[in-house]
Structures are given as C-alpha cells and as structure tokens.
Amino acid sequence: MKTMPPDNPIRNCLKHLAHAMSPVILACCLASQAQAQWTYSPWTGDADSGITSASPYTVAVNCGGPAATVNGVAFQASATSGANFSLGGGITSWGPGGSPNISGGSLTLALGFFYNGTPRTVTLTNLTPGATYETSLFSFGWEASGRSQTFASGSDSIVVDQDFYGNQNGIRIAYTFVADSSGSKVLTITPGPGGNGGSFHMCALANRQVSAGSPQAKILVFGPGATIGPVSANAAAISWTVPYGSNPVALSPTFTTDPAATCTVGGILAASGSTQDFTNPVHYIVKASDFATSGKTTDYTVTVTVTPASPACDITSFGINVAGSSAVITDIDFTTGTVDWRVPYGTPVATLAPSYTLSAGATCTRPNPGIPTPALSTTTPVPYLIHAEDGFTTKTYDVTVTVAPPPPGGVTGLALWLDASAPDTMTLDGSTVNEWRDKLGSTAKMTRANGAPTVVASGIGTIPTVHFTSGSSMGDGVNHAAPVTIFYVSRQTGGSNARVLSATGNNWLLGYHGGQRDRCYFEGWVCGEGDGIGGSSDTNPHLYTATIGGSGQNSTVWAEGVQIASNQNGTQGPNNLNLGSSSFNEYSDCDISEVLVYHRILNSTELGAVGEYLTLRSRLHGAHLHKPCGLGAGCRLGCVKRCRTRCRSRNGDLHGHDRPVQRQALRARGSGTNAVMPFMVSGRGGRAAP
C-alpha cells in the first residue's frame, strides 16, 4: 500500500472537490497552499520548475550531473559544497541515466542525483538577514510508491512521498523562509516515517531570494558571547558576558548591523572592534540605511558582566599528540580522577611526552607536551595536580598507560579491531552494549544505533560474542573508502536472515542478504546474485574476508579462506559500517565475535596470517586460511583436499559444512579462475535500490 504524506486539507480539497469547484475557488485554494512554508508540486519540465531568471539565486547545482541552464538560470555541475551551501550525511552519486518523464532543460537536471544520508543535511550560508528565500529540491518517482521522507528545518516539517506523482514523474519540494540574524539555514531530509526505507534522490538544489526585506535599525551579532534582546519601542538590551580577568574599562566588541545601517556611541561613529569603557552600561544607537526617510532607529543598552573565577580543574583531553592513542578520563570525585592512556602496540612508554587540555583557566606544572618526572608507566600511576582558575581548588589525576595488544597475526595498520572477548573495550548497560571500542586503543568505535545488542559469554567457538536481534544494530559513522580490507566472524542464529555486516551511508553488504549466505554488494553485486555462489542461510559460523581496491581494481571476497569472487562489479568500501544492519531495515538475528578493518589492501601472506588467527581462536576448523594451492592458482582440488584433511585431523570428520566441495564443483563448470560468472545488475529491474 502506498504511504501518503500526512493529511493536508488543501490537497484533499483539490483532490476530492476540484471537479466541482469554480476556477476562482480553485485559484484561492492554490494560493493558500503556496503560502505554507513547506510545499510540493509536480515537476514536468521548465514551465512548472519554479526556476526564474527574475530572481537572484544563491545556489543552483545539478546534483550528479553536468552544468545546465534552465529558464536562464545557470546550474553548476555536480558538487556537494560551494560558496553558499554544503551537503552533509551519506552522499552517493547516481547517473547520468534513466528516462524520467521530464522535458526541456529540466531533463538534464533529472538524469542524475545524490542519494543516501540518514539524515541528509542541506546547509545554506551567506543569507541576508530579513530577506525571504525559497529553496527547491528536485526529484522524481523511483518506484510505484513508498519512498516517504521527512523534510524539516527547526520545528517546520512535512512528510512527502518522493513517488507521490508516480514512477518516473517529477516532484519539486519547496521551503520558503525568512533568513534570521545568523545568515544561515539548515534543512534535513530523513527517510520515513513509513515507506520502504530508501533515501531521497536529490536531482537538483536551488535557492533563490524572493525579496530583499526592508532596511532595519538592528544589531544582528555582538560580542562574542552576548545575548541580544528583542526590540520594543525602538529600544533593546544586550547582555554581554566576558571571561574572568577581562578589564571592562577597555573592551573591543565586534558586531554586525543590518546592511548599511550606522552605529554611534555618545554621538561618535562606532565601528566594530572599537574600544569602549563598559564600567557602566553603554548605549549603541543604530540608524537604518533609509533613516533619512523612515526615521528608523534603535537604542541598544549594553551591560557587561565579568565571569567570576572558575573552580573547574579537570583534564578534558590527554595524549592527542600521539597518533593512534586514546584516553579514558574518569572523575572519581571533586578532588581525584584517573586517566587510562591507551597507546599503540610497541610504543616505548618511558619516553612518552603527552599533551593535555584543562578546564578554562586551570593550570598544571607537568610539561605540556613533555615527559613527566617520573616517566609514565603501565604499573605505577603518575599524578597530575591541576589548579583551578580561582587559585585554591585543586584536583589530582593518576595517569597510567595501557599498551595495546599485538595485532592479529602480527599484521599492523588496523583502523578498527572489535573483539567481543575484550570486555574493557565495551560500555555496557547490564548486558546491553552501548559502545564497542577499538581493541588497539584508538578513538574508533561502534555505537549502539537501534535495539539492544547484548554480550553472550559463550558464543562462536565458546568465546564471547555480541548478539543482535532483529531491530538491533551498531554503527561507527566512518567512511571506510577503498582501498580497504575487512575480516569478520559471524553467524546467523535463525529468525530474521538479512544483512549482518553492512553500511548506512551507501548500499553495501558482506556475507549475508535476503535469506542467503555468500552474498556481497559493494554498490554493485560482487557475488551471490544469479551466479550460483552460496546457499540458504544457516546457523554455522562463517569467516568472510574482502579486499576492495576501488575504481578500476578488483574486489575480492573469501568465505572460510576460499575465494568466491573477484571482479569490478562493486568497488566501494562501507560508509558508516553497521553491525546487525539498519540498512533498508534489513536486520538479522545474528552473532558477531570479531571485526577487523584495514585501510589498505593486505598481501597474500598477511591475509593468511590474519585468517589463521581468526580461524584458530574461533575454532573454524574447515577454513582454507588463504593458503596457496600446490596444484596452481587456477585449481581448487588441492584446496578441497587440504580442507578435508585439516577437518578430519581435528574432529575425525568434516566440520560444519561442505562448502569447499560445493565451490570446487561450481568452478568445474567453467575454466580458469573465473569459472563462476559475475553478474552485474543494470537497468531498473532486479537492481538493489539506492
């Protein structure tokens, strides 16, 4: 069933009564709808695009396409930022391509778009305070129905289905607003509520100035740190709080007035940054640019308060000058605290010279940065005594060093190492995992996004595991762009069998999808879609490995150390890596015991070392371990024999599954190393939707 936008009386009026209305009544309805801050309308071509050369544009960009001109307005080529705008959230480009039902120069705008982002943000800058603007977001239907989005700015919001006018038919969502004193405006676009979970496809962005606004006698910004009150009866108050130690006799505030307005103090022209005596309240008299005809003036009374000396004496950061390190700062009470400084494996502790930051105005006699006396240690705490700004409050932090363990297989360069058997890397609420940090001590971490992932004491290979139920997930918010190498050990546990390791910033998955295993989609099917690889979901543990070199390079995937695909059908790394999956609401009931991410491509020796480490500690007895085959790179028979021998020697029988045999048989249907045919999805049918 199609998810419709929320009930809109104007739309319902048009939809159900249009045929019974006179043209005059219909025009009134349309005028009322246009007065709303958020509106939406069909976009069939240039005539109904709302683009007009009669208005000045601060932004006009063709998202995902070349430079274009519509109704005399020049749109710049695809960009995510410019002089007056920036786009945030996950951004992936599509196109040019397709055949939307849009004509004229507008069709050039529609042939490509940006997608992803939960939410997508649109930030408009360098706006003129008091001026009225209209922002237009252009898109078209991607399916029959169901791609609902929440468009919002502050408390103003609307829910609109991108597919409201039908598949391939254009839609324009517009927001009209008056710029405030900040000169900026932030819009957010969030998938849902309802809908199929897909993100908004933004073909183009335009922002035009509808009216300049009348001149005002206003101070827009004062300070820094001042609060400007409302104008009433041509007067207003400004409360300016300045730091402790400031001398109110000679302060130099910076301020911004309404364009072309003038400001005087005591009848003398006052420029921003000029020095004034604020021992007593000071009157800033502002005259509008059209004062000669309008007489607009405002008397601003500025009162200064000097902040009292602060009793705060905290260490707020520690050791950020040492690459790969992170600090856990714990305040025990008002007078004591601890700092556990975690540094990379192999770091010489005795020569560490950490930097640190303190509460405003606080001081410490330890060098910053520098080697303390005595030197830091992994066993004996070194005290850092902090003195507050007030001159008598103090606090002592005991600092110790924790050196990260050796990396798996001795392979260095990890960007993220999640190990469920390392309880000190987790922040728990009972058994719920709120945070899962990098085992090597960097700032990398997974944060709970949905549901309640829980720690299971005896999971895969009888070692601890993090268990996800349908609806629970964690994300790291990092774009792991190619080149990247990823390992992880997991299993589905029955119930929902969708994605396990995926991303929310782009369409990416490794290992599992749609009730199947051995499926990989890196913004394109690498394996598992129509190529005969893999099989139905099971509850056995699996080790998946992927190396993704990027555009023009093969992405290669292994399952239990046996290569199952190598092609360029998908070449993107995961953007905002997710465990349990919240991508497209495709969750799994699953266990994950270990995840390793390297921001480089590991060589065969390194792959083997890490694979063997994960295989042995997780007791994955059937793994091939990325070992070379004695019968040549194109042969799998020797690999199968090795797997059978290894399993029987440890358990007396094949353990877990017979997948190496299945893969050897699949490759026997073709020749060489590429016997399993890759399947590149193209067109609209059968494609994983952005």
Features:
7 helices; 10-stranded antiparallel β-sheet; mainly beta; disordered C terminus; 690 residues; 8-stranded antiparallel β-sheet; disordered N terminus
Beta-strand residue percentage: 35-45%
| Largest β sheet strand count, sense and barrel closure | 10 strands, antiparallel
- Residue ranges: pLDDT <50 for 5 or more in a row? 1-36, 622-690
Helicity, as a percent range = under 10%
State the distance separating the first and last CA atoms.
20 Å
Average pLDDT taken over every residue: 84
The coarse overall form would be flat
What does it look like?
It is a single chain. Strands 32, 33, 34, 37, 39, 40, 41, 42, 43 and 47 form a 10-stranded antiparallel beta sheet that branches. Strands 31, 35, 36, 38, 44, 45, 46 and 48 form an 8-stranded antiparallel beta sheet that branches. A 6-stranded antiparallel beta sheet has the order 5-6-9-14-11-12, with no helix packed on it. α1 runs antiparallel to α2 (23-34). Helices cover 10% and strands 37% of the residues. It has 690 residues and is mainly beta. A hairpin with a 2-residue loop joins β20 and β21.
Question: What does the secondary structure layout of this molecule look like, with pairings?
Answer:
Blueprint: H1 9-17, H2 23-34, E1 38-43, E2 57-62, E3 68-70, E4 73-75, E5 81-82, E6 85-88, E7 92-94, H3 106-110, E8 113-115, E9 120-124, E10 132-140, E11 148-153, E12 156-161, E13 170-178, E14 185-191, E15 204-211, E16 219-223, E17 226-228, E18 235-242, E19 254-257, E20 262-265, E21 268-269, E22 282-287, H4 291-294, E23 297-306, E24 315-318, E25 326-331, E26 336-343, E27 356-358, E28 363-364, E29 382-387, E30 394-403, E31 414-419, E32 426-429, E33 432-437, E34 445-450, E35 454-456, E36 465-468, E37 473-475, E38 484-492, E39 501-503, E40 508-513, E41 516-522, E42 525-527, E43 535-536, E44 542-548, E45 555-559, E46 562-567, E47 577-579, E48 590-598, H5 604-617, H6 637-651, H7 659-667
Parallel strand pairs: 18-23, 26-30
Antiparallel strand pairs: 1-13, 2-15, 3-4, 5-6, 6-9, 7-8, 9-14, 10-13, 10-15, 11-12, 11-14, 16-19, 17-18, 20-21, 20-22, 22-23, 24-27, 25-26, 28-29, 29-30, 31-48, 32-33, 33-34, 34-37, 35-36, 36-48, 37-47, 38-44, 38-48, 39-40, 39-47, 40-41, 41-42, 41-43, 44-45, 45-46
Helix pairs in contact: 1-2
